[in-house]
Amino acid sequence: MEACKRIAQLLEKVRNEKPLVHQITNYVTVNDCANITLALGASPVMADDILEVSDMVSIAKALVINIGTLNSNTIASMILAGKTANKLNIPVVLDPVGVGATKYRTDTAKRILDEVKISVIRGNLSEIKILNGIEGKTKGVDSTEEIFLESNNIEDIKLMAKSFAKNIKAAIAITGAVDIITDGETLYTVENGHSTMAKVTGTGCMCTALIGSFMAATNNSLLASLSGVTVMGLAGEIAFENLDKVNGGTGSLKVGILDAICNLNEEIILRRVKINEG
């Protein structure tokens, strides 16, 4: 319950402060990420040209780097923006989309980790495992691995996540059927969400945008990660419940997620969030 109250308080802070969140993201989900940032109450800017990223990130409260659609120009922009953010003590959130699918993609993510101090990494299980030097399984940009509370592997995954977070000194958020969030010391699992969310392109990217938005209003990377992951899962859950089961589909679900984020309040958070510590 304490964690839920802190999430609700941070949501209110985001809405009051309306922080600018600079996002260098992919062209598949850029509009969705901008809209979910606005729905939460923050202000998005999606600048990716190398000639302006330093100036743009210098007036932002957080930077989100998403490698979903890579090219050499945006990689250079990501590195420069990240280094500028580090100099100005602006937090950086990384979404290593599809790491493991190609050598180029994996090398790029590792280069970013080598050259930029990251506050939060949000990814699926295979992406996090690969960044941590463990073999993972991907299909395109999707994970073929999942976390289930009833399986025997969840304790191993928790240990891996805590170790990785401690080693790189960043919060790690692994999203899936069960979400795992840790800073290397404290660990939470979250059970909100719905499986249909996986049929909507960009729900992971939108979750990362939410984490970046929360990160823009706090220096607590664990709380920002927990807030973003929890709010996204909760919105997906509510959107599915409100879906017209005869005529509704994944398009309506995406709109419903935005509506749920926009209408989210403390009462809903306290009543519906399913968080466990440890």
Automatic annotation (TrEMBL):
Substrate binds at residues 46, 202. Transmembrane segments: none annotated. One of its GO terms (cellular component) is cytosol. InterPro entries: Hyethyz_kinase (IPR000417), Ribokinase-like (IPR029056). Keywords: ATP-binding, Kinase, Magnesium, Metal-binding, Nucleotide-binding, Thiamine biosynthesis, Transferase. GO terms for molecular function: ATP binding; hydroxyethylthiazole kinase activity; hydroxymethylpyrimidine kinase activity; magnesium ion binding; phosphomethylpyrimidine kinase activity. It catalyses: 5-(2-hydroxyethyl)-4-methylthiazole + ATP = 4-methyl-5-(2-phosphooxyethyl)-thiazole + ADP + H(+). PANTHER family: HYDROXYMETHYLPYRIMIDINE_PHOSPHOMETHYLPYRIMIDINE KINASE THI20-RELATED (PTHR20858:SF17), PHOSPHOMETHYLPYRIMIDINE KINASE (PTHR20858). It comes from the Bacteria. Its EC number is 2.7.1.50. Pathway: Cofactor biosynthesis; thiamine diphosphate biosynthesis; 4-methyl-5-(2-phosphoethyl)-thiazole from 5-(2-hydroxyethyl)-4-methylthiazole: step 1/1. Its cofactor is Mg(2+). It is an enzyme of class 2 (transferase). This is Hydroxyethylthiazole kinase. ATP binds at residues 122, 175. Belongs to the Thz kinase family. One of its GO terms (biological process) is thiamine biosynthetic process.
